[in-house]
Design brief:
The chain is α+β, with helices and mostly antiparallel strands. 41% of the residues lie in helices and 24% in strands. The strands form seven sheets. It has a seven-stranded mixed sheet. β19, α14 and β20 form a beta-alpha-beta unit. The longest helix has 27 residues. It starts with a helix and ends with a helix. The structure holds glycyl-adenosine-5'-phosphate (GAP).
Length: 511
Amino acid sequence: MEQKDDKLKEVISHAKEYGFVFPSSEIYDGLAATYDYGPLGAELKNNIKSYWWKSMVQMNDNIVGIDSSIFMHPSIWKASGHVDAFNDPLIDNKDSKKRYRADVLIEEHVEKIRLKIEKEVQKGAKKFGADFDEIQFKLTNPNVLRNSEKIHEIEARFKETLDNDDLEGVHQLIVDLDIVCPISGTKNWTEVRQFNLMFSTELGSVTGDASKIYLRPETAQGIFVNFLNVQKSSRMKVPFGIAQIGKAFRNEIVARQFIFRMREFEQMEMQFFVRPGEEMKWYEHWKQKRIAWHHSLGLGEELYRTHDHIKLAHYANAACDVEFNFPMGFKELEGIHSRTDFDLKQHESFSGKKMQYFDPEINQNYIPYVVETSVGLDRLFLSIFSASHKNEILEDGSERTVLSLPPALAPYKVAIMPLTRKDGLSEKATEVWNMLKMDFNCQYDEKDSPGKRYRRQDAIGTPFCVMIDHQTMEDNTVTIRDRDTMQQERIAIADLAKMIDDKTNVKHLLK
Ligand code: GAP
């Protein structure tokens, strides 16, 4: 646990030091669970967005994108079920006065048992070496079996309480599992209450319920209510998708863990409209597609796992999370949901407007079913940033911190450096910078020793450093240093653009 906390602290401090992420309103001691992206953070975030948009919208001829407003008619949130059911069960510890999400306390307890199983498996693997059969071991080892049974029992009981809206049962489960408050160490819990996560405000100058509007808690509803506008104006045929990137707001009860759980965050969502009855096929399709997309980032496939929901949201008939091994352990990164025809049907009923599609191939009108993929941009940022953040010991015993970001996403693709400011090297370096800046985001850096400059570029994830030296003035060649191998090679200035493009073009990820 301590190690995980240390890793998260290191990531937070690195993000601040180099201008990726700052605590919001810091000079006023911050505002809980809100963060600002600095110059490099904004670049990285934009690159992640572009990659998602390109692969989701521009590379699928049956998906189009929109940008809908954050404020929407308040009836939308009645229809979608958010006013009545977008709740988290919260519980307070009476001694520490700290508030927790009851479901998260239980999930974290289960995760601890899961870690015990993992440790037992690792012990077995060490003991039996090459002969180790993990499946057989898990089926026969008494400790693993006992802990698996425990997880099974907790999850079954938890599901039953949630399905029956039995908050007293959730409270009893926390008590029975001997879950203590991490701050006070006591089991002195209040009862469990439901807490609605939507922020509300008032439209115009009138006050009162009539003018109450909400800040959207998901971008998806902007897509649902525009379903026919988009279908007709873009002449889309089912199956087709509508994608959107935008801000969402949730009054999270517990919002720690940096940009993992924020009160203002960004989602990248896609709703895929399909024929009724075909939703499971498309659910599997998008599940596989999204996992492959995450793997394409090259951070390591072992950092991802999937988790099928035991408690389905009010709108879903199947749902799974893609989880990522964040510095705090495996947690949800993206949700893939089969949302049935719930939302469109509800909007038809609340608005009184038809939400039907005429399918010319089967000559029928119907309300399409929807499969949704929904990833949090800030969580994606944290996954990429934390997995790329490494402290390395080099061959000569020195250390470096490197941010081995996927080159296509790196804020700067190349840093241009004159060896010294004298002898016309600065002017020559400016010339190279001017030449490359049309194609790449380049940084010009002439301060400090070359070694210090290389370290700084490593720490912000710049894939290449180009050094202009005295030989450059004679033969128009430069050295180019690779962030990951730290190898330097001498090449002609005329070949720079191609070499940088070969490694940093987003095409590499898209393939
Ligand atoms: N439209 C479906 C939907 O909103 P969700 O599972 O509640 O589903 C989707 O949210 C994704 O949004 C999550 O997988 C997560 O990446 C991101 N997300 C949700 N709440 C968040 C928060 N408070 N802070 C940052 N990201 C969040």
